[in-house]
Design a protein that fits this description.
The structure is a homodimer. By secondary structure, chain A is of the alpha+beta class. Chain A is about 35% helix and about 40% strand. Chain A has 4 helices and 6 strands, in the order ααββαββββα. The longest helix of chain A has 16 residues. The radius of gyration of chain A is 14 Å and the shape is globular. The termini of chain A are far apart. Chains A and B meet through strand 3, strand 4 and strand 5 of A and strand 3, strand 4 and strand 5 of B.
């Protein structure tokens, strides 16, 4: 089960990296909680699509994955060149490296809960 | 093994919360990597002791723990009232709530590697 969940999670990241957003229906529940806020899958998709629109080379690089039971934790490292405002930051054309540490709870094999921390301090420091 | 590692990790947090810093020898290797930097256990202990000196009511509240193989991931939520400068922030007497998302790799039952992300943006927003 644990191995299954990890490969399922990696499938989710592959869908994001391939921009197969329609496939999110396989990986994300109709309604989920994102950092404590209720979201529909459509809203979640729109949020990720907006990130990708601002950062065309956004690639979810899973550096550490820990999966157990219905939980997955991942350290994702982004190396990217944002082209438009993202997360409230205005890009300056520079290539950025920053991490996200994110926890997921799955229900019936699909993401039901996301708790994400993005290293905004690193982004701010690189844009300074 | 996975259950063992989780309970071992919870023992480590209990030692921190009880301020039993001498017990860190049981939980942390002589040399470790902290966010990519090499540290001795003494330096790691000093770092945590400095946080506790600045934030006497610092309590490591593990809200999510995911353990598998030699890895542990944890979402820790701090609700505390810093009394002196910490993480480069100057406290204003206010009670703060912020999260840390942290990954550990264990070797022979002791922490060998830490990759930590603290929600500095939340701290900055609450101190504004």
């Amino acid at each position: 089960m644990t191995e299954d969940l990890e490969s399922r999670y990696r499938g989710y990241l592959a869908a994001l990296n391939d921009r197969r957003f329609d496939d999110l229906a396989h990986f994300v529940r109709d309604r989920l909680s994102y950092n404590g806020e209720p979201l529909t899958r459509a809203e979640y998709r729109d949020m990720i699509a907006a990130d990708v629109a601002a950062i065309p080379d956004l690639f979810f690089d899973a550096r550490l994955v820990v999966a157990h039971g219905d939980r997955v934790a991942c350290r994702i490292v982004f190396e990217c060149t944002p082209e438009a405002e993202f997360l409230g930051f205005t890009p300056n054309g520079a290539r950025l490296t920053f991490a996200e540490h994110v926890f997921y709870r799955f229900e019936d094999g699909r993401i039901a809960e996301v708790s994400s921390l993005i290293d905004r301090a690193a982004i701010a420091a690189q844009l300074r």
